[in-house]
Amino acid sequence: MFTTNRSITILVLAACTAVATAAEDSPTTPKERTDDLWKSQNQEINADIIKMDGKIDLAFVGDSITRRWRGEGNKEVWDRYWGSYRAVNMGIGGDATQNVLWRLKNGQLDGYQARVFVVMIGTNNCWGKKTVPADVAAGIKAILDLIHSKQPKAKILLLSILPTGDKPNPGREPRAAINSLISRFQGGSVHYMDISAKFLEPDGTISKDVMPDSLHLAPKGYEIWSEAIKDKVKELLAETEAR
User: Fold this and answer.
1) Which of 121, 157, 164, 117 shows the shortest CA–CA distance to 140?
2) How far apart are CA 152 and CA 28, in angstroms?
3) Residue (of 241, 50, 227) closest to 153 by Cα position
4) What is the total count of domains within the chain?
5) pTM tops 0.85, yes or no
6) Please, how many CA atoms are within 13 Å of residue 166, restricted to the half-sphere of its CB?
7) Catalytic residues
8) Lateral strand order in the sheet of 87-91
């Protein structure tokens, strides 16, 4: 009997651990990362926010695709399009929706007034074999709601997740499904743009000049991104000036 009860206890504890882990990794549950790279990049963003002295025109929120605006060659594109604004890059490599939620809940929406947030997030929620698009979309919605609650005067430009892979592949399917779902979030302060097709050749492939590793952008990719949204950004900034 003791052996049986002990076995049952072990099974129950294992199940509880699995449930806790699943909840922790949920796209809607804020999760802090503890790796040194993340800590360093998080601190850098916090320092950049402080430098803005309470006023930010543009805040780009995302993962490594946003983060790499800071890289050699890419920084020049950033400066050309966004350098005239009080702009902050709030991207961290490897972040999924839950990590962005943690950052935004723990200081990165505080101490300043922003005019426009540009949000592109979710691709790092899509690497598993059992990606649930509705769950990822819910994580993105949680980010939008949090931004709105803490920065109610700001506009939000929500962007589609970009396609991955040098040619059409199954990995693009959950991303496309998520994009379809998050397009429904448009309304009020949220404006949605699907820019994913702009990175594709007519046959559905992605040029190495645009995405060298079929995920991250080269300077040409950042040019495409900037050109796609620059007019909308100006429009939203003008609307914030009008209030």
Assistant:
1) 121
2) 20
3) 241
4) 1
5) yes
6) 5
7) 64, 213, 216
8) 87-91, 55-62, 113-120, 155-159, 190-193
Mean pLDDT of 135-150: 98
- 37 burial level (CB within 10 Å; 0-12, 13-18, 19+): exposed
3-state DSSP call for residue 209?
A: coil
Reported as a pLDDT band with limits 50, 70 and 90, residue 128 is confident
Q: Which runs of consecutive H residues, i.e. helices, occur in the chain?
A: 2-24, 36-51, 64-67, 74-82, 97-105, 133-150, 172-182, 219-242
- Gap between the Cα atoms of 166 and 204, Å rounded: 8
Residue 197 lies in domain: 2-242
What pLDDT score does 242 carry?
57
63 contacts 91 by C-beta, under 8 angstroms? yes
Q: Give me the residues paired with residue 197 across strands.
A: none
Dihedral of alpha carbons 116, 228, 211, 128, sign: positive
Instruction: Report pLDDT digits (tens) over 3-39.
Output: 444 443 334 333 333 333 445 589 999 999 999 999 9
User: What is the separation of C-alpha 43 from the centre of its chain, rounded to a whole number of angstroms?
Assistant: 18
- Give the CATH number for residue 195: 3.40.50.1110
Place of tokens 């559905």: 204
Q: What is the spatial distance between Cα 213 and Cα 228, in angstroms, rounded to a whole number?
A: 21
